[in-house]
User: What shape does this take?
Amino acid sequence: MKRRNFLYSMAAGAGLLIPVGHGVWAASAGSGATEAATKNKLIVIMLRGAVDGLNVVAPYGDANYARLRPNIALARPGQTDGAIDLDGYFGLHPALADMQELWQQKKLAFVHASGSPDFTRSHFDAQDYLESGTPGRKGTADGWMNRLLGVLPGNTTPTRAVSVGAVMPRILSGSIAASNIASGAAGTKANVLDRPKVGAAFEQMYKENDKYAKTFSDAQEAHQEMMGASMEKEQQVANGGAPLPNGFPDDSTRIATLMRNDPKIQMVFMALGGWDTHANQGAGKGQLANRLSPLGLGLANLAKRLGPMFDDTTIVVMSEFGRTAKQNGNGGTDHGHGNVMWVMGGKVAGGKVYGDWRGLGSDQLYEGRDVPVTTDFRSVLAQVCERHMGLSDNQLIKVFPEQTYDKSNFNLFQNKA
Assistant: This one.
C-alpha cells in the first residue's frame, strides 16, 4: 500500500481524525458555532477504576458504616482526619477540603446510590456503558457526549467539544467533530506540523482528496486555536517558559484558560485513573486520600479559574461503579455497584446530598454487599442536558435513546436553561 493511501486509511478508520500535533487529533466539521449557542458549558470528569463513593461522601451517621469498615472508615467530624460534615449524616473526605467552599456556596451537590443499572463488575464493560449511555448494550456506535453535540443548536467546529488525554475517548466518538489534546503542557505546544515546510508538505499530500484536505485544514485550525487560547500572558509569566508538571491541578488551569479564551469550546471531557483500591486504601490518610487531594484541588481551581464563566458551567464527576460496603482482607474494597456522582456549577442547587439513600443495613445492600443503584446515572445526565443545556424531550431521546430509566424526582438546578 502506498504511504498516502495508508495515511488515508488511518484517517478513515479513525472517523476522519487527522493528527495535528503531539497528542492532538481533530475531525472535520461545519462552520461557526456562535457564542450564544455555546454559552452553557459542560465539563465531564470520569474517574476510571471505580472510586470508593462511600469514603468520598461517607454516611458516618449510619452505625453500619464503621462496623463494615473497621480500618478504613472515615473518623467522625471533629476527630483527627475525620470527615468534613455536610448535613449531620454524610461527611466529605478530608482530602477534599478544597471543595468545602463550593459546598458552602451551594454550588456543589452529590447524588448518592447512583450508577449503572447493569450488574457487571467489569471495569471495561462498565466504563463502556457509562460512556455510550446505553447500559447493557455493547453495540452502540457512539458516545452520549457526541450525540449531545449532534442535537445542540448551531453548527459545530472542531473545538466545540474537547477531550484532554492520550486518545479520543469513547464518550466523544461518533459522527460529530471533536478535538483531542494531550494532558500536560505538551497538548498546546507547537509541533512539527507547525513548521511551514512540513505543514505545506502535508497539505500537498492531502490535496488530491477533497474530503481529507478539508479534514486536515480543520484539524490544523483546531490545533492553532488551542495554541492561541493557551498562550495567555499570565501563564507565560508564571511558567517562565518551563512546561507545567503533570497532574490534574495543572490540567484544570489549562482547561479553564482554553475555555475562557475560546468561547466556541462548549464541552470538555477528561478521565483520571488510579481509583481501583483493592488494597491499602486508607481512611482519612493513605492511598485514596492521595488520589482525592489533587482531584479536589483541581476541581476547586477549575471553578475559580473559569471566573464568571463558572456561572454558566456544569461539571459532572462520575465513575463506572462503586465499591463494596465492607472492607476486604487487604485493607481495601472490591468492585461494587452504587456510587456517588458529583454535580457542581454556578446554577446547581448545591449544598445537598440527593438520591434515594437506603442505608447500609444488610437487608438494604445489593446482593448483600454493595450500595444499590437507586438513581440511574442517565437520569442525572438527562437533567443536566435538559435543565442546563436546554434540551427538549425529543432531543433527550436522541442523546439517551433507551427510555428505560425514570427522570430524577429531585431538581439539581435552580432554574431551567
